[in-house]
Amino acid sequence: xxxxxxxxxxxxxxxxxxxxxxxxxxxxxxxxxxxxxxxxxxxxxxxxxxxxxxxxxxxxxxxxxxxxxxxxxxxxxxxxxxxxxxxxxxxxxxxxxxxxxxxxxxxxxxxxxxxxxxxxxxxxxxxxxxxxxxxxxxxxxxxxxxxxxxxxxxxxxxxxxxxxxxxxxxxxxxxxxxxxxxxxxxxxxxxxxxxxxxxxxxxxxxxxxxxxxxxxxxxxxxxxxxxxxxxxxxxxxxxxxxxxxxxxxxxxxxxxxxxxxxxxxxxxxxxxxxxxxxxxxxxxxxxxxxxxxxxxxxxxxxxxxxxxxxxxxxxxxxxxxxxxxxxxxxxxxxxxxxxxxxxxxxxx
Length: 348
Ligand code: AHG
Ligand code: MN
Ligand code: MN
Prior knowledge:
Layout lengths: L6 H4 L5 H9 L8 H22 L8 E5 L5 E3 H17 L2 E6 L6 E2 L10 E9 L10 E9 L9 H4 L8 E7 L3 E6 L4 E7 L4 E6 L10 E3 L10 H11 L10 E2 L5 H11 L2 E4 L12 H14 L3 E3 L19 E4 L1 H11 L9
Parallel strand pairs: 3-5, 11-12, 11-13
Antiparallel strand pairs: 1-2, 3-4, 5-6, 6-7, 7-8, 8-9, 9-10, 13-15, 14-15
Helix pairs in contact: 3-4, 6-9
Bound molecules: 2,5-anhydro-1,6-di-O-phosphono-D-glucitol and manganese (II) ion (MN) (2 copies).
2,5-anhydro-1,6-di-O-phosphono-D-glucitol (AHG) binds next to β5.
């Protein structure tokens, strides 16, 4: 987008709503219900954005005093974001079940007129929440499934589908600007929120991620408890090799969605591996890893547990975790090769 965009030129940009309507015909879920669901999500995103932009002026910093289902301290903004998304999805009527990081059980949605929505939405309402108080980018991640054929009532079981069954996935980064990126399996598109008109405008059409990038992102503070293969991989990325573009740079924000977004646009590899303390890693499969894996693949990248494709994991819990290696295709493949024989954290 041009920095000196004139008011009338804004009209040249497609809004998210226009884009969704245009896409409807080319997509299985063309009834309009799916479009309305995405609209509901974008409305909640705008409300969360509004809260975020006033943080520090109004009292939304700090924690609620509660420990969430992950055993982590719940921030006030975690809860606010959760409530905005639940409210928007409940009001919209297209969603039958919500799974949220901030709620231990799946939340069934009954509409006032008891007509049932047919979409399941799993979400991390606020990702990177420990960064909020220090003005670092945070985000929202969402994953959408359809209620399986023949299932009348949405329960947790109906939500426990592998990532390959997602019919949509996306994220919002509340960063230097607010951007919503999503896929329905036909490429990846990004929409920047224009605060003056309150609309998401198509700013990043058909995002493709470079096959290889110059950055890797991992919390190296945990280095000692990484698998031997990963330690070797990290050392390899740090070695000088001009021809191969090494050493790489380290970039780690500590907000998965913000790290992912940067790597998606610039090329890079994000890693949250298994460690001795957390043998399944830290990130949650259903509302962190799967949606971003869908987007990574749709943009030409890849997402792996270190030895298998994330999107093929058959889940058995809403809040289950998985190790994550995600980003540029060649970089994910290289990571897998390093791990191939030395992936165990027991012989770290
Ligand atoms: P959340 O704020 O939703 O709990 O997620 C935090 C996650 C993720 O955003 C980030 O990449 C990771 O935790 C950082 O963990 P470390 O502090 O262990 O690096
Ligand atoms: Mn998160
Ligand atoms: Mn979160």
